[in-house]
Write a structure and sequence with these properties.
Chain lengths: 473, 164
């Protein structure tokens, strides 16, 4: 058997490596997705006061610290046994909308647009933001503007663009000022224009990716995401809904019940665990999270423009969309949703209420907080002693939920595109591109330090290394 | 008053000891009225404010510069070299190139290295790095004024790698 290694996989968050094993006939036999980094936040936070956790766990990631802060603060709310003031809940959700917008913009414009707009087979030296700027300067400017808007929402509402101090146990640190609200509202129309322009552009180029749509992870899996009691898409708070591959609801649970429904399998060749839907066992309980899954499990978005786009999306691809290529499409619909939701929240007078923080001591020994990170469901689960010192923590990160699905998608793409007898870079790029479609944050999911890259290795029938892509920056 | 059109970008990790020198120097220069940006690392979004500036200073802790000293080096977009994937970080030259491509702007740019040695996990600067920051805060306004209103006697000193 021969082997291909892609190491590192580029334009993703974190370190990973893909190994592709070839048979005697030169066809792909099997693939392996290895996440090659580890951190250990659960362990080294033991003994710290619970109220430090939002600030500590935010450092897991520079892209989605808000999601960690929110899940952590919600776990702390549960330990304090408080119901946070309504204005605080609205402000947290508004900050989260800014977070989703900036993270989705990063994923689409900076990481995947080079593949989508320059081509999967384009010159790898220029398949990056600079190459994109040479041919589509307007797209790059749009990406920068949209991400900047999302970051400005975070900065204005939470204090800083990255690792802000504004999200705290019991609510938020400070109330919203009218001038701040108005400044954000003033920036919304331009952000909306970019979002619409980008979605229209994406729809126009979509037909050029039929092979990718057909092979980028179309395997049947379950899906999981947060929904409101009435089935609307929810990003800050909600019940966890699991749907089957055919679209029926398998379970809808309170976040505090997660451990009864989500198991975590340890893998021998990766630091990333593989969560699965417990009632079906491992690995039959494979499920996907993130934008694609969220739109699959929700009945509707709950905002007018996003709902119109969701209807169009479902008319084209069905009510359960299986191809992971459509993570990109779903991500852009979610940007529209976040901008609408942000506007609705800011125009609610009660968001200006001055009471934004509940205060209490430790009233429960355990707390669970769940939010939708840009990449999917994020779970923080803490246990504390009577003084509030952390005794135990479990973090299940969005990308972890997708581990099994990413592995299966890599295998499908490899078998579909890789022909070892005439191996071309574009074939291997598609293997990386399917990973990028999930927008994995491997630094988060394994809690590891470092850069981003992923390596692909092609290994022959006798174990010899035939080819390797290692284009880390 | 600082000259108009000058942007100072200080970058580095404030939790890695002397790596905080760049952001700290930028913060102090903001106190003199300069437009500054403090950031952990260089990201593509910076291309926009860079494009709007006439002169850009990139301030970064630099182990290759003698401890406590500062070094100014002219940077141009043409120095940007692959790989330029902009995944998690970039270089001053890469950002200048992005500003040129996306915004058709070509500000004059200088990389200011702040001589430092201690990059372990820690908050606070070593004495050497603190000295480099002080020197940057002292010298940079002079350099900025000189560049905006070029003084023939001063300018040649800044046409290449130059220890200040």
């Amino acid at each position: 058997m021969r082997k291909i290694t892609i190491d590192p996989v580029t334009r993703i968050e974190g370190h990973a490596k893909i190994t592709i094993h070839l048979g005697e006939d030169g066809n792909v036999e099997r693939t392996q997705f290895h996440v090659t980094q580890v951190r250990g936040f659960e362990k080294f936070t033991e003994g710290r006061p619970y109220y430090e956790m939002p600030a500590i766990t935010a450092r897991i990631c520079g892209i989605c610290p808000i999601s960690h802060q929110l899940a952590s603060a919600k776990a702390c709310d549960a330990i304090m046994a408080v119901r946070i003031p309504p204005a605080a809940a609205m402000l947290r959700e508004a900050i989260h909308c800014g977070q989703l917008v900036q993270s989705h913009a990063l994923s689409f414009f900076h990481l995947s647009a080079p593949d989508l707009l320059l081509g999967m087979d384009s010159d790898p030296v220029k398949r990056n933001v600079l190459g994109l700027a040479e041919k589509h300067a307007d797209i790059v400017r749009d990406g920068i503007a949209l991400r900047k808007f999302g970051q400005s929402v975070i900065e204005k509402l939470a204090g800083e663009r990255i690792h802000p101090p504004g999200i705290v146990p019991g609510g938020v640190a400070s109330p919203l000022e009218i001038a701040t609200r108005d400044a954000i509202l003033k920036g919304l129309p331009a952000a909306r224009d970019v979002a619409w322009r980008t979605l229209d552009l994406f729809k126009c180029i979509l037909d050029g990716f039929q092979p990718e749509i057909a092979a980028f992870g179309t395997m049947p899996t379950m899906y999981a995401g947060l929904v409101s009691n009435s089935g609307d898409l929810r990003l800050y708070d909600g019940r966890i809904r699991f749907k089957t591959a055919t679209g029926s609801v398998a379970a809808e649970i309170d976040a505090s019940e997660y451990a009864s429904y989500i198991g975590e399998a340890s893998l021998t060749d990766s630091y990333l665990k593989a969560p699965y839907f417990k009632p079906l066992g491992y690995p039959a309980g494979i499920y996907r999270v993130g934008p694609l899954a969220r739109l699959n499990v929700a009945d509707r978005c709950g905002t007018p423009a996003a709902d119109a786009e969701l209807r169009d999306y479902r008319e084209r691809f069905g009510t359960v969309v299986a191809s992971s290529f459509h993570f990109h499409y779903a991500r852009l619909i979610e940007v529209i949703y976040c901008l609408e939701r942000l506007e609705a929240l800011l125009e609610t007078p009660a968001i200006l209420d001055r009471h934004v923080r509940a205060r209490a001591e430790v009233n429960a020994g355990e707390g669970i907080g769940v939010a939708e990170a840009p990449r999917g469901i994020l779970i923080h689960h803490y246990k504390v002693d009577e003084h509030g010192a952390m005794r135990w923590a479990n973090l299940i990160i969005a990308t972890g939920h997708n581990n099994l699905a990413i592995s299966r998608s890599i295998e499908q793409v490899s078998k579909y595109f890789i022909k070892a007898k005439r191996l071309e870079e574009g074939m291997l790029n598609r293997v990386s591109a399917v990973v990028r479609a999930y927008d994995p944050c491997l630094s988060c999911s394994t809690h590891a330090a470092g850069q981003v890259p992923l390596r692909i290795e092609l290994v022959g029938p006798r174990g010899e290394r035939l080819h390797e892509i290692s284009n880390a920056s | 008053m600082p000259p108009e059109g000058v942007l100072i970008i200080g970058y580095g990790n404030p939790l890695r000891g002397d790596d905080a020198a760049g952001p700290l120097a930028a913060r102090r220069l903001a106190g003199f009225g300069f437009e500054t940006i403090e950031t952990h690392q260089l990201t593509p979004e910076l291309a926009e404010p860079i494009a709007a500036a006439e002169i850009v200073f990139f301030l970064d802790a630099d182990a290759a510069v003698p401890a406590g000293e500062i070094c100014a080096q002219r940077v141009t977009a043409s120095e940007a070299e692959p790989p330029l994937s902009f995944e998690h970080h970039s270089t001053p030259a890469g950002l200048l190139r992005l500003a040129a491509l996306a915004y058709r702007a070509a500000p004059e740019a200088w990389a200011i290295g702040l001589g430092a040695r201690c990059f372990d996990l820690a908050e606070g600067l070593s004495r050497n790095a603190e000295r480099a920051v002080s020197r940057a805060v002292q010298e940079l306004p002079l350099l900025a004024h000189a560049l905006v209103r070029p003084a023939p006697a001063l300018m040649p000193a800044f046409r290449g790698p130059q220890q200040i």
